[in-house]
């Protein structure tokens, strides 16, 4: 039986990576799909672990060859989800979770109808701004660009299946896990048949 594809989106600084790390640590049936990007590595990021770091030329060749399940240009860099890796995992019955922006989520909605889209929402704009400035991973100009885009990102919440407010980390993680559990027991998914005796 094919695995489920989950998409987690939200504005920069909302805590997607932290929530993902916590949820992935608890679920062995869930795999994180590594994205490809043309941006340079930050800090201790490793190629093939955090991202597949590609040159712009490599990325555009892959894009022309339909090598991405979704792709987007964000703040002057390309990002994309390698199609083959994700589909191979799903076909093996493994659940996959992606961390993509609103453009990528919209593409996945079009290209993979069974995907489950989850939007991680900040408790407030002020708190999101504080988190972004506290990361110390980007210069002031990059932070201003991200803050200017927040209203557009938050308005996209209506395109998602679920919304989780990341006010308290533990509660946000619990809700993301609850969504995964709920999707598994939908009659239409067929996973409940695994619980029956042969």
CATH topology: Rossmann fold
- In CATH terms, the superfamily is P-loop containing nucleotide triphosphate hydrolases
Low-confidence stretches: none
**Largest β sheet strand count, sense and barrel closure:** 5 strands, parallel
* Oligomer state of the chains in this structure: single chain
Shape: globular
Query: How many β-strand runs?
Result: 9
Rg (C-alpha, Å): 17 Å
| Spatial arrangement of strands, main beta sheet | 2-7-1-8-9
Structure description:
The chain has 198 residues and is an alpha/beta fold. The chain has helices at residues 16-26, 56-64, 83-91, 102-111, 125-135, 140-155, 169-184, and strands spanning 5-9, 30-32, 36-37, 52-53, 68-74, 77-82, 95-99, 116-121, 162-165. Strand 5 and strand 6 (77-82) form a beta hairpin.
List the topology elements.
Elements: E1 5-9, H1 16-26, E2 30-32, E3 36-37, E4 52-53, H2 56-64, E5 68-74, E6 77-82, H3 83-91, E7 95-99, H4 102-111, E8 116-121, H5 125-135, H6 140-155, E9 162-165, H7 169-184
Parallel strand pairs: 1-7, 1-8, 2-7, 3-4, 8-9
Antiparallel strand pairs: 3-6, 5-6
Helix pairs in contact: 1-7, 5-6
């Amino acid at each position: 039986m094919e695995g489920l594809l989950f998409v987690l989106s939200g504005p920069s600084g909302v805590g997607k990576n932290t929530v993902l790390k916590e949820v992935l640590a608890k679920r062995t049936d869930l795999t994180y799909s590594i994205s490809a990007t043309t941006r340079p590595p930050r800090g201790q990021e490793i190629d093939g672990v955090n991202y597949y770091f590609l040159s712009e030329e490599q990325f555009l060749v892959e894009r022309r060859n339909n090598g991405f399940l979704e792709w987007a240009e964000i703040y002057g860099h390309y990002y994309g989800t390698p199609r083959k890796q994700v589909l191979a995992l799903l076909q093996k019955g493994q659940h996959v979770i992606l961390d993509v922006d609103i453009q990528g989520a919209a593409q996945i909605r079009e290209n993979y109808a069974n995907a489950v889209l989850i939007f991680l929402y900040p408790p407030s704009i002020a708190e999101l701004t504080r988190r972004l400035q506290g990361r110390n991973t980007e210069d002031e100009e990059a932070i201003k660009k991200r803050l200017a885009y927040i209203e557009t990102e938050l308005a996209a919440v209506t395109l998602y299946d679920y919304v989780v407010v990341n006010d308290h980390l533990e509660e946000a993680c619990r809700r993301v896990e609850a969504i995964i559990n709920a999707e598994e027991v939908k009659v239409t998914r067929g996973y409940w048949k695994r619980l029956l005796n042969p």
